[in-house]
Amino acid sequence: MVFKIFNYCRGKFGKIIFGIGTDFCHDLGVKGLNIVFKMIEFDGLPVAKISDEMGKGMCRDKAYEDYVKLLNGIKNG
Description:
Blueprint: H1 2-9, H2 22-25, E1 41-42, E2 45-46, H3 62-71
Antiparallel strand pairs: 1-2
């Protein structure tokens, strides 16, 4: 399903960056827990969550976070 979303959006927007939320991936027929899991690294490399809402972004590596923001034209706030 994620690849279908990506392929549909490819070429329609500048950069395609998205995550899959609880309602989308939790389809077990029972109410999901009110818990947020955030990836902090992948294969030993840092991961950055960038948000336009104060306090929702996170990254353990400030230099990598700044790099991701630079690549995506996001000004440090």
